[in-house]
Amino acid sequence: MRKKKLGWTLGAGAAVILGLGAAASGLSSANASTPDTSASSKTHPVKVDVFAPERGDNAGVEGKGWIVDLKLSFRGKTLAQTGYNGLQLTGPAAHNNIAPFPGTFSTGQDDKIPGLVVLDSTTNSTLPGFTGPGTNLANLFNLSGVTNRTPHKTELWDTWIVGAPIAGQNVDTTLTVAVVDDLNHDGIYNDAPGVVKDLDGDGRIGAKDLKLMGVASNIVTVPFHINADPA
Are 190 and 180 contacting, i.e. CB atoms less than 8 angstroms apart? Predict the structure, then answer.
């Protein structure tokens, strides 16, 4: 069974609060909610697994407190090629970009895993820095680290606990996760945009737009419900 680490909450005052929801690698991907809307992940150099939320979950308290927990497996890639550039343990306000493992905390391209895109279909556009469903949420992740390195694979884990109802309350929503392709051909996965555009012009932003932009991984979509009930 997969063992979860302890979590805690830090001071309010920003969209997301620091939390630890990452896990050891004991759970097989067969038990994770990782439907793939692109071709088989075997055709990509990167494999994405999302362990939380799971498909159909009723997650959170008053629209917050739900966790995104994911693993990125880069086949045949060194740590430098993944784009990863440092451990991260960060959060909002006073916890932003400080020791022991500083990282910036905002929407947009993640400073630690700059090829990662995380979207939510009901992300609002009312908070500063949020532009609706196309907002890349990757730089809001709190905990990033390297869980496995072999001559044939590099594995990264990334976790986020949502501290404000940025995607609504009592709403059905869809999380979409992928690693963007090496669009600038520098040999590094570091080309995720801050905002994903509606490239297919259908009025929605999600997996189809990521596929048109170009991805190095499978595209994981997880439909779930954001709970509005109090604790």
Answer: no
State the residue for tokens 């499978």. Answer: 218
**Residue 125: how many other CB atoms lie within 10 Å:** 11
With beta carbons less than 8 A apart as the criterion, state whether 37 and 83 touch.
Answer: no
Give the whole-angstrom CA distance, residue 108 versus residue 86: 17
Q: Tens of pLDDT along 153-195? A: 999 999 999 999 999 999 999 999 999 999 999 999 999 999 9
Task: With CA atoms as reference, report the closest residue to 12 among 124, 89, 129, 94.
Answer: 94
Segment 12-38, tens digit of pLDDT: 333 333 333 333 333 333 344 444 544
What CA–CA distance (Å, rounded) separates 179 from 71?
11
Whether the bond between 100 and the residue before it is cis, its omega within 30 degrees of 0, is yes
Distance CA 207, CA 220 (A): 8
Report the C-alpha gap between 200 and 97 in whole angstroms.
Answer: 36
The answer for residues whose C-beta is within 8 angstroms of residue 224's C-beta and 6 or more apart is 53, 54, 55, 56, 57, 58, 59, 172, 173, 174, 175
> Taking the chain, what is the end-to-end CA distance rounded to the nearest angstrom?
27
DSSP state letter for 208: H
What mean pLDDT is predicted for residues 42-46?
90
Q: Enter the tokens of residue 15.
A: 């969209």
- Predicted TM-score (pTM) of the model is 0.83
